Amino acid sequence: TCSVAKKELDDLEQWKEKHKPEPLKLVPQRLGGKESEAQARQKQQMMLMQCKYQQKHKREEYIKAKKAAEEAEILKKKAIQREKAERLEAKKRQEEMQRREMFFEDHKTSELLNRLDLGLPKRDSCQIANHGQESTAW
């Protein structure tokens, strides 16, 4: 087992040596374009400032949109509650009208009964008077 492991390690070392990357050979160049270092730094500073303002603006827009959404949600809830209150008020008015109508009907009925009671003799006297007579056969 030791000889097999040693052989595999040797094979690995040979493979690494064979596939070793070649060193890079680049022609030296001047980097940074035509700008001087001061101009590049100034440009970088301006971009950083613009980026900060853009982030601030973006954050403000997000906050405005969030507030608008919350306001719309509140208005929607208020409208729903207003509609519920209006329906409840209409229901109360309808019940009040029905109660008044029933009261009026009861009042009319009681007046009619009072008039009928005043116009007819009392039942007790009628029953006593009719009790002595025999009913006629048909």
From TrEMBL:
Keywords: Coiled coil
Coiled coil start-end: 71-100
Region Disordered, annotated ranges: 1-21
InterPro entries cross-referenced by the UniProt entry: EPSTI1
Nucleus in keyword set: no
Protein's UniProt keywords contain Coiled coil: yes
The protein's name in its UniProt record: ESIP1 protein
Gene: Epsti1
